[in-house]
Fold these 2 entries.
Entry 1:
Amino acid sequence: MTESTTIPNALDQLRLLGDDAETINSVLVVDDEQRLVGSLSLIRLVLARSNVLIGDIMDREFTSVTAETDQEECARVMQRYNLSLLPVVDREGLLTGVILAEDLVDVAEEEATEDMFRMASVGGERISGPLSNSLRSRLPWLMINLATAFLAAAMVSLFESTIERVIALAVFLPVVASQGGIGGTQTVTLVVRSMALGEVPRQLGLRLLVRELALGLVHGIALGVVVGLVAYLWKGNLTLGLILGLAMMGNMLVAGMFGAGVPLLLRQLRMDPAVSSAVFVTTFTDVIGFILFLGLAAIFVQHLV
């Protein structure tokens, strides 16, 4: 509709749409040269007096995109401003098309699925696809993960003599590693997904890192108290409980720091945070968790035997 259209004429135009008008809750307004100049809600149109023009009651503040705008960004804009339709304009502001909310449902699902696959390092793979595609998608990352597992094993081997003196240390190694791994995975999943939704602009990166560090500290204290108490009641050694509790607290801090820091760093380096963040984070939490736990045990080994 143009801004010079009268209210009765505007209503007549809507009636001509028939059943299609049932899905309309707002209309776009253009000038005589078809440049987008505003929008008008259907309720405001229906309640307006018949002697006014569309241009008198329309909202001149509107959100639009160009044909070059990425479809994911269009979905984010519509979600952010709760829009049912999004106008598309060219460089001169001429209205060239309209994107409806239902048009982007499949886009949002596709983008979410793609992010999830890439987080698991199976991007581009489908369950019914060729076996060769699955091998090319998964095997390289499995090899990388194997290399990082050997790195963690090498860290443990540095403390073989300590473990030989206190066999109980081997019992608690998976506890430290698994809690740090799941904590880091939780953080990296949240951060990468928030990045995909445009909820983490670059200027908020440091604030996000501080938040996850604080959260990791709280989690570490809570979990450290629990595992320390369990270790003391199980093995009857207070020093072992304290060491395990401190290692747990330190590893949860590491999980928070790297869970948020690795995706932020990859984005800063213009690399895709969804591709390899989880592999790096679990490596850091495993290696540093083992070093913290076994290193403290080596220092206080006299109190453990």
Note: The two ends are 85 Å apart (CA to CA).
Entry 2:
Amino acid sequence: MKKLLIIFVLIISTNSFAAIKLKNIAKVEGIRANQLIGYGLVVGLNGTGDKSRTEFTNQSLVNMLSRMGVTVNQDDVKVENVAAVMVTATLPPFAKAGSEMDVTISSIGDAESLEGGTLLLTPLKAPNGEVYAVAQGPITVGGMNVSAGGTNTTKNHPTVGRIPNGAIIEKEIPYQLKQTYITLNFNNMSISNIVEAKNRINTIFNEKIAEISSPGSLQIAIPGEFRNRYYEFLDEVLKVEIIPEDFAKVVVDERTGTIVMGSDVRVSAVAISHGNLTIKVNSTVNVNQPGPFSRGQTVITGETDVNIEEEEGKMMMLPEPVRISDLVKALNSIGVSPRDLIAILQSIKAAGALHGKLEVI
């Protein structure tokens, strides 16, 4: 029987709920990271690289050797110590030329492992096609692939590795920030959070400098005393703390059995009945053999037993109003298994007793 493992995450708010800084729930417009990507070769593998049928690896190796003055025939190249890879990195905002950053290397051929390999010089480009960094160096792989005598053992993902500080930034990305105001874009649209952030900023600076520009954005004018201290003002704004709004939502992931419940979910007065019906079917085959040297025939008969077991139904009455924490305790008290809770929540929502959004992903 396949068992379903369900993980509960219950978020319960109290009067002493910790305040959150704005920098944790909002982003400054104009300040962002950028994705870089490149195609390269990993060499030095111990026979675990791409096989000869991976033609683009051989072609890349021949082209590289040609640029170095070595002429070879692609049909004669059968190297298993080389693997074609994609190199990815995230260029942080305000990164300066000469700084270093981590890169991730992923095999795109049929290499068995990148363990012990070295990435050759690889340009990293942005979507506009410009090169902003170059990567090179020995690869660190958090896995292994061992085979002997026809037996193969693989741990983690040996075809993906990293190079800490493996890329050098060659070009900076210019940022054009407004010198008269700052725009904060909140990660989740919540009018309550934006209104509270606006009021807190205006109170702290004792001036009406913040206003709501859209349902997910807050525009903050820079006071005259901070006109020449833009980043100091930005730091003061991002350190402002608010108490975020609780979301009345229940998220159910039926694939993994994960249920996340917001503490602000309420349940009206409802009666819940729980009981399981189990049907067991057992089949038995009887074979009767004829006596030796007789002309009898083998007779096969079957017997089938059907047993029906029904658990005694249990009913629980929940008074109104009920928090989601009370609902979980009540369901546990009547013996509801985690696997059945998904169906029960959907039924409560269908009955109109669950006051919150039920989202199944």
Note: Confidence is low (pLDDT under 50) at residues 1-16.
